Structure formats: C-alpha cells, structure tokens
C-alpha cells in the first residue's frame, strides 16, 4: 500500500508540474510526437501496402505452380541468354503432365490474346484480354461468378463457341442487362455468353478478371495458333492442400524432365515459378522500408529524448528547494527519483499518444477523402506506447537520479 501511495503521489507531483508549465510541456512533446508519428505512419503504410500486394499474390494461389519458358526475375542482372532458346510450354507437355502427376487438384494449359475488341450489336469494348484454356482452368484459378456458370465438360471437349466475360466487359456491352445467352463477336467469331465473373476491381499488381474473356481451348484452336509464342502459352498446376508445395514442385519437375526427355545432370529447359518468389521479394523490400522508417523516426525520437532530458534538468533546478523540503520532512531518495522519472515518462507517453492520434487521423483522412483503407494494427499502437515508455525512462533517469542525490540542507538554501 505504501508503494502504491508513493506512486500515486509521484504522478500527482508530475501532473502538477506539467500543468504549471503548459507551453514548455507542449514544446518538449514535439520531438517525441514527430518521432512516434513518423515510425508508426511508415509501419502502417508498409502494412497497408503489404496487405494489398499479398491479396494480389493470394489470387495466384499459395499451392499454384506455373510452368513457363522464362523464370520470374526481380531486379539485378537477369541472365536472359540462358533462357532465350528454351521451348515454350506445349499442349503435348500438358498432356504428359496430366498422365504423370498425382499430387494435384488441377492442371490447365492456357494461352492469352491481349488487346482484343468485343462487339455486341452497336456496342463494343476495346482492350479486352482473351484467354483460352483447358477444362481444369476453374480448378487452377479461383473463379467467382455474378451471373451464369463455368463451361461443361462437353462444351470444353467439343470446342463449343461459348464465352465467360469479365464484369467490366459485360457492363460495357449490355449496360446492366442480363448477359447470359447473348451472342457477342470476338476475332470474327460469334460466341454465346454462359457466365460473367464477379466484379473485382484492379489490385496493386494490376491483376483482375474484369476485362478478361475465357473460351474453351478446343474452340480457340480453330481461331488462332494456340502454341504460338506470341500468345504466351503456360501450364498452371495447383497442388493438393494436404501435400507440401515442395513435394508438388519436385513431382512436377520430375514429370517435366520426363516429358522433355532431359538426361540426368542436364539443366532444365523450363521454369517453375511460384508465388513464394514474389512473397520473399516483398519481405526483402519491406524490411528495407522498415529500416528506413526506424532511421528517420529514430532521429526525431533521439532529438525528442534530449529535449525531455533537458526539460527535466530545468525542472529539477527550479524545484531544488522543494526537493530539499521534501527530504527534510523524511522523503526517501527513491521517492524523489520516482517523482521525476514519472514526470519524464508522462511527458513521453503524452507525446507518443499525440503521435498515434495523428496517425489515426491520417487513416481517417485516407479513408474518407481518398477512399483508401490504411490499417493501424494494435501491434503498432503497442510499439508506439512502448517506445515512448522506454524513451521516457532513459531521458528521465539521470535528471531524476541527480535530484534524488541532492543534500537537503544545500537544496533548501538554494
């Protein structure tokens, strides 16, 4: 009870000192406020960017592998000369994988024809992307429909002229009217609409189904050369959830080497790309941004800490005779120490809370003024409060210690 009472008295002394010197208190808070605001704002921005990018990566699927000619490269020297003579993934490769793979939920062969014009009567939409794929496309990609359905097995096998439209294309052609059953024209061919994707909006990586069209690969064979490199052929493999991605990748690599008849010890003539490559690159990038945030905010906090320490030395000087009176009446050294330590901690916590309030205000401005969601996680709030607490303890200790060691007689005389 004595300790609790002493702590309460120390807080009251600190609160009185802060109230009596409002202008000095506010000025001394600026450094801590700016520092906490900078660090937490950077971390909140990084978390927001990471979440948005991760959502884009998650669309590709954590268990998804892409068999392509070119491996994904992320900056630095890219040895393109090693890959330029590789063959493109072919329909024969797809058939070979279908026969050999066991750890998969689906395998699809896909080609893409970009910048196509879609017409319906007098309406048209330009810049659409036409994708032709084998029946398992809905197993290797996550598809959400707002209208209609996916292709039937018979439509895929027989190459029926049917199409699934992105929401933006459907809206541009039909102006909100039902799309199912209507006939559109693409690349000189008429196709019947059987489905419309749910509207997604473009994510931070530019991926969206809104301007995509999907047709059966067997129908596309009669329209263009589906194995031409101009159409970017690729094989997409989605592994079973119960099987580790490394095992699926190992099986896929072995199956591809078998299909291509690659001899032992010879380098692969294909690339296996996966989303973890993007995730690892994002982690590296965000670590650098976090370090930059610590450096920028750290200087502000350092300056703020020196400011708090300087103010505390001034406060000790002003109240030297009061300290002498307290000690002459029996106040212990630790009581004087706690009194000034709590004052410094209270100053820093107040500055930290002001900084966090500014960050929260920034999230509201982003949400209501720019329609952008900026996340402020509890971990960042806790970190801001923790940093303020530590800075308060460090910057207040020496002034508090020097106050606690004053001689009561000399202090009263001052």
Automatic annotation (TrEMBL):
Alphabetized UniProt keyword annotations: Cell membrane, Membrane, Transmembrane, Transmembrane helix
Record-annotated MacB-like periplasmic core domain positions: 25-253
Transmembrane residue ranges: 27-46, 291-313, 334-361, 381-401
Top-level taxon: Bacteria
GO cellular component: plasma membrane
InterPro entries to which the protein is assigned, alphabetical: ABC3_permease_C, MacB_PCD, Macrolide_Exporter_MacB
Domain ABC3 transporter permease C-terminal positions: 295-408
A Pfam family the protein falls into: MacB_PCD
Keyword Ion transport: no
Compartment(s): Cell membrane
Topology within the bilayer: Multi-pass membrane protein
One Gene Ontology MF term: transmembrane transporter activity
Designated name of the protein: Putative ABC transport system permease protein
């Amino acid at each position: 009870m004595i300790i609790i009472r002493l702590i309460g008295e120390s807080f009251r002394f600190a609160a009185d000192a802060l109230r009596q010197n409002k202008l000095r208190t506010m000025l001394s808070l600026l450094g801590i406020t700016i520092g906490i605001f900078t660090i937490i704002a950077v971390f909140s921005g990084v978390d927001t960017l990471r979440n948005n990018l991760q959502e884009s990566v998650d669309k590709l699927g954590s268990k998804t592998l892409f068999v392509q000619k070119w491996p994904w490269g992320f900056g630095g020297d890219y040895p393109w000369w090693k890959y330029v003579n590789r063959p493109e993934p072919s329909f024969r490769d797809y058939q070979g994988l279908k026969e050999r793979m066991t750890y998969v939920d689906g395998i699809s062969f896909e080609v893409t024809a970009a910048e196509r014009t879609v017409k319906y009567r007098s309406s048209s939409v330009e810049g659409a992307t036409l994708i032709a794929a084998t029946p398992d496309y809905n197993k290797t990609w996550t598809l959400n429909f707002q209208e209609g359905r996916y292709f039937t097995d018979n439509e895929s096998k027989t190459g029926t002229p049917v199409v699934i439209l992105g929401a933006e294309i459907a809206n541009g052609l039909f102006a909100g009217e039902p799309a199912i059953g209507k006939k559109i024209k693409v690349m000189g061919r008429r196709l019947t609409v059987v489905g419309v994707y749910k509207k997604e909006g473009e994510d931070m990586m530019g991926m969206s189904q809104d301007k995509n069209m999907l047709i059966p690969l067997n129908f596309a064979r009669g329209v263009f050369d589906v194995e031409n490199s101009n159409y970017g052929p690729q094989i997409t493999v989605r592994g079973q959830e119960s099987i580790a991605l490394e095992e699926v990748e190992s099986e896929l690599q072995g199956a591809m080497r078998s299909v291509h008849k690659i001899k032992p010890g010879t380098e692969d003539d294909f690339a296996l790309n996966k989303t973890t490559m993007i995730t690892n690159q994002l982690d590296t990038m965000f670590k650098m941004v976090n370090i930059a945030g610590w450096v920028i905010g750290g200087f502000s906090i350092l300056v703020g800490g020196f400011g708090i320490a300087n103010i505390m030395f001034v406060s000790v000087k002003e109240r030297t005779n009061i300290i002498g009176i307290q000690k002459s009446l029996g106040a212990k050294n630790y009581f004087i120490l706690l009194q000034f330590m709590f004052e410094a901690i209270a100053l820093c916590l107040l500055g930290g809370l002001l900084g966090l309030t500014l960050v929260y205000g920034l999230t509201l401005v982003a949400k209501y003024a720019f329609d952008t969601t900026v996340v402020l996680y509890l971990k960042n709030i806790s970190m801001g409060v923790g940093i303020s607490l530590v800075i308060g303890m460090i910057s207040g200790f020496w002034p508090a210690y020097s106050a606690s060691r004053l001689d009561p007689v000399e202090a009263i005389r001052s």
